[in-house]
Amino acid sequence: MVKPLHGHLARKRFGQNFLTDPNIIRKIVAAIAPQPGDAIVEIGPGLGALTRPLMEACEHLHVVEIDRDLIARLKTEHPPEKLTVHEGDALKFDFSRLPDDLKVVGNLPYNISTPLLFHLGDYAERVREMTFMLQKEVVERMVAEPDTEAYGRLGVMLQYRFRMARLFDVPPGAFHPAPKVTSAIVRMQPRPQSELDCTDAKLLGRIVTAAFGQRRKTLRNTLRGVVSDADFEALGIDPVARGETLSLADFVRIANYCAAREVA
Ligand code: SAM
Predict the structure, then answer these.
(1) CA of 143 to the centre of ligand 1 (A)
(2) Are the C-beta atoms of 142 and 155 separated by less than 8 Å?
């Protein structure tokens, strides 16, 4: 039976595992490096383990929280001049309501981490940097290189939009209740416009999704109807290779080739 923490019983449906290890909390805050004047939003502040030190370091903090009990608590504990609490689901939150040059941080609930990363991708232009704690396996997929088991759609699409760095691991014992898995901290910095060399990012998304849809199949099969043998030859890509052998640059070349052919 899990014991309450500061009078709050962790809710599984909201992925609640609260950070309690002061050294880990310090390390994460140091990685975020909050400065006075920074615009920062924390997703899922929970009982405030990261919220408090972040608020101390910057003039004002925004948080997005879904749990009504925790929202009420945050509002009682912190004045609105220091903390703005946005109530509701971060997956539906309009981040353009917040100031530009935003730092986005959070110990993300595992059950929503992948859709949330894609949702935040839509706001990349307004973001300076994102620092998240996620399940270690998810971080491995995010930073994965071609020809590895962890390499797939998530990694390719995020690496197109962001520079990513895996910073350090966090063991289950740093939380209450302890999760079953190890976590890891990842830093994501939006790439400048000059590096975004794909002419149609939506088409890139469709091609990458198809290429990894059936991992064991060849590119000729997974991209049938989109890329012909003649196209593969023109691109210098082997049609009997599998998606996991292609680099991000290869996927961008395929997408740009298909986009140009459609315009021609
Ligand atoms: N930041 C705290 C910490 O490190 O101790 C809590 C982290 S806990 C893993 C995840 C937090 O996200 C909880 O406070 C939970 O209520 C909140 N949460 C879960 N789903 C959410 C959603 N869809 N939108 C906003 N917050 C959510």
Answers:
(1) 23
(2) yes
Helix (H) or strand (E) holding 31: helix 22-32
pTM of the model: 0.94
Residue 61 gets the label, from left (phi > 0), alpha (psi -120 to 50) or beta, of beta
Ligand 1 center–CA 112 separation, angstroms:
10
For residue 102, give every residue at least 6 positions away whose Cβ sits within 8 Å of its Cβ, in sequence order, or none. Answer: 39, 40, 41, 95, 123, 126, 127, 128
Q: Which CATH superfamily is domain 12-194 in?
A: Vaccinia Virus protein VP39 (3.40.50.150)
Q: Is the pLDDT of residue 264 over 70?
A: no
Whose C-alpha lies nearest to ligand 1, atom 14?
46
Q: What is the DSSP string of 207-246?
A: HHHHHHHTTTSBHHHHTTTTS-HHHHHHHT--TTSBGGG-
The sign one gets for the Cα dihedral 158, 180, 172, 55 is: positive
Domain boundaries along the sequence of the chain: 12-194, 201-263
pLDDT > 70 in the chain, percent:
99
Helix (H) and strand (E) counts for the chain?
Answer: 10, 9
Residues with CB under 6 A from ligand 1: 14-19, 43-47, 49-50, 64-67, 70, 89-91, 107, 109, 112
Please compute the mean of the pLDDT values over residues 107-122 and round it to a whole number: 92
Topology annotation, domain 201-263 = Helicase, Ruva Protein; domain 3 (1.10.8)
Record the tokens describing residue 127, joined without a space: 């973001």
Give yes or no for a contact between 102 and 127, defined as CB atoms under 8 angstroms apart.
Answer: yes
Distance, CA of 102 to CA of 119 (rounded, Å):
15
